[in-house]
């Protein structure tokens, strides 16, 4: 037995896998890692990226000053074909350009021994053993980005004193209402969502608007290799609702105007290393489509036998395949958001993979009173970095499934609540790159000066982040932005001295009161209030608006209705 075969024999033995033929009902998957991308025979070049990346992806990288290199090249076709030619039972179950590997499915684990004899193969690792999953039907396809009008969102938001309904607290905790009140709902942003299934999404009224406006661009199931993701689990449905739901006065997500691609990367019945590879493949596809934000309410710590689980020493941000993929996704210009995990009150209390990766947002959970939720996984990482990075509401989060509105607990929901708000913030600041965005968001967090292992830097305030990002301070009183007003919506930027219910009064040039309404402000700091002027008879002219809280008048400003 030569060294290559002996190496594979040992890896299989330590994994507890049988070195013999297996029945057709059992499937094995092997990650075949290659030594290079074809060397001088490579069919790809950084000079012609549109052969393997979308124009949106290339533009996003170019706009952020990110170069295209060999990690962007697809896996070498000749290598793939030679592996498949070794055995008729080999089927391709996935490809990772970043990890430079091909995932092979077969029913006989001993058949994989022949792969290591190929001179261009670096390693072969079993990453799944279980029931047959692979269907392998079709290829992923996606619609182009839509041009989403936000007028419907703006008018609905401006015409109600409680547009969020039961989702008010989780939106206001991050000052997402500042973003929405300023007219930014995630429009122009592409969010990739990776989960274990999105049962019922296609028929839910809360997503009907997103489908009607062409915001649901497509999907792919990496587990079965088909385009069926509206199945298996409602977990992804809950997650998506935190961002994309549009049910005014009942539930509104943090980015209802964003575009979405949905990826099923998780096999909910088992925990195996295969899912980490799917995580990376999903991130790669998100990158190739030009996604701005990626949300994964997933994490990996312990695996089913016979696979070895992670240890705390693994959590150094660059050892596990999933963490390597998250690092690369961030380096490629994607804002990566991953749940910290729900192990805070368990023997394994730490964040999982890939939440340990640097330069991503690992999101922990707090309760409605902004205190730490005991289940939320903790830091630091093995190399001493602060984790989680930020927190959002994860206990009694408002979510939706096909049956309607309910509540759920977990960093699975604090992550998308934050991810959608982040997308809306990026929509507000398209000229700023991920590093600038990240810095402003972290600086806005309430515990930035004293981060700890439970909440990291704390809860972001996207209103404060907006001013930090542009190195501006809010003028005393209130501002009308823009002035003259546009599209029948009066937008006010207010420096709130505390959370309060304020009275907003509008007077005409003669001093007559023409409108009075109330609005809730969730927390201290920059807040945006918006009023629907189309609900009243406002003629062209000059008006005055006054905001009064429980402590007195906060400010007054003159504005023009054109």
Overview of this structure, please?
It contains 13 helices and 22 strands. With 562 residues, it is of the alpha/beta class. The chain has 3 domains: 92 residues, 2-Layer Sandwich (Alpha-Beta Plaits), CATH 3.30.70; 302 residues, Rossmann fold (3-Layer(aba) Sandwich), CATH 3.40.50; 84 residues, Immunoglobulin-like, CATH 2.60.40. The strands form 6 sheets. It has a 7-stranded parallel beta sheet, with helices on both faces. A 4-stranded antiparallel beta sheet has the order 2-3-1-4, with helices on both faces. It is elongated.
What is the element layout, followed by pairings?
Blueprint: H1 3-15, E1 26-34, H2 55-63, H3 77-85, E2 91-96, E3 101-106, E4 121-131, H4 151-158, H5 168-173, H6 176-181, E5 190-195, H7 208-212, E6 216-221, H8 235-244, E7 246-247, E8 251-252, E9 259-264, H9 274-289, E10 293-296, H10 321-331, E11 335-339, E12 361-366, E13 390-393, E14 397-401, E15 404-408, H11 411-428, H12 434-443, H13 462-469, E16 478-480, E17 489-496, E18 500-508, E19 513-521, E20 525-532, E21 541-549, E22 552-561
Parallel strand pairs: 5-9, 5-10, 6-9, 10-11, 11-12, 12-13
Antiparallel strand pairs: 1-3, 1-4, 2-3, 7-8, 14-15, 16-17, 17-20, 18-19, 18-21, 21-22
Helix pairs in contact: 8-11, 9-10, 12-13
């Amino acid at each position: 037995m030569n060294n290559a075969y002996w190496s594979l024999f040992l890896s299989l033995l330590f994994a507890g896998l049988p070195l013999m033929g297996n029945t057709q009902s059992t499937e094995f998957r092997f990650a075949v890692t290659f030594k290079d991308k074809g060397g001088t025979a490579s069919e790809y070049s950084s000079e012609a990226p549109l052969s393997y990346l979308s124009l949106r992806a290339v533009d996003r990288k170019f706009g952020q000053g990110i170069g295209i290199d060999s990690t962007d090249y697809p896996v070498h076709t000749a290598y793939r074909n030679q592996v498949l030619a070794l055995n008729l039972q080999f089927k391709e179950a996935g490809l990772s350009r970043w990890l430079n590997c091909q995932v092979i499915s077969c029913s006989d684990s001993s058949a994989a021994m022949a792969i290591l004899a190929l001179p261009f193969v670096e390693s072969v690792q079993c990453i799944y053993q279980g029931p047959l999953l692979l269907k392998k039907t079709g290829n992923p396809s996606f619609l182009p980005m839509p041009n989403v009008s936000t007028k419907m969102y703006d008018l609905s938001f401006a015409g109600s004193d409680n547009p969020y309904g039961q989702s008010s607290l989780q939106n206001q905790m991050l000052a997402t209402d500042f973003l929405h009140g300023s007219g930014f709902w995630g429009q122009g942003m592409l969010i990739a969502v990776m989960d274990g299934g999105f049962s019922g999404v296609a028929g839910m009224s809360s997503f009907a608007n997103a489908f009607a406006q062409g915001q649901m661009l497509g999907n792919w199931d990496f587990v079965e290799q088909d385009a069926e993701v509206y199945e298996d689990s409602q977990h992804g449905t809950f997650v998506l609702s935190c961002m994309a739901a549009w049910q005014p006065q009942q539930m509104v997500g943090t980015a209802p105007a964003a575009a979405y691609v949905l990826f099923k990367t998780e096999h909910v019945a088992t925990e195996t290393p295969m899912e980490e590879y799917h995580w990376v493949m999903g991130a790669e596809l998100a990158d190739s489509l030009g996604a701005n934000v990626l949300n994964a309410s997933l994490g990996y710590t312990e695996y089913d036998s016979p696979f070895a689980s992670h240890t705390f020493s693994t959590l150094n941000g660059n050892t596990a395949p999933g963490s390597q993929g998250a690092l690369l996704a961030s380096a490629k210009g994607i804002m990566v958001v991953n749940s910290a995990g729900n192990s805070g009150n368990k023997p394994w209390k730490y964040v999982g993979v890939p939440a340990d990766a640097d330069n991503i947002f690992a999101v922990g959970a707090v309760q409605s009173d902004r205190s730490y939720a005991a289940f939320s996984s903790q830091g630091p990482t093995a190399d001493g970095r602060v984790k989680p990075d930020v927190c959002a509401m994860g206990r009694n989060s408002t979510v939706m499934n096909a049956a309607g509105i309910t509540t759920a607990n977990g960093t699975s929901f604090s992550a998308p609540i934050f991810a959608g708000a982040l997308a809306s913030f990026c929509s507000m600041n398209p000229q700023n790159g991920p590093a600038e965005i990240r810095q402003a968001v972290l600086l806005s967090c309430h515990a930035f000066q004293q981060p700890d292992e439970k909440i990291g830097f704390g809860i972001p305030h996207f209103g404060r982040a907006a001013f930090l990002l542009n190195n501006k301070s809010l003028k005393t009183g209130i501002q009308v932005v823009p002035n003259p007003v546009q599209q029948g919506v009066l937008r006010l930027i207010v420096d709130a001295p505390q959370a309060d219910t304020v009275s907003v009064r509008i007077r005409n040039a003669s001093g007559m009161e023409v409108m009075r309404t109330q609005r809730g402000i969730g927390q201290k700091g920059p807040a945006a209030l918006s009023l629907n002027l189309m609900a009243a008879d406002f003629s062209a002219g000059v008006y005055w608006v006054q905001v009064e809280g429980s402590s007195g008048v906060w400010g007054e400003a003159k504005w023009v209705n054109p």
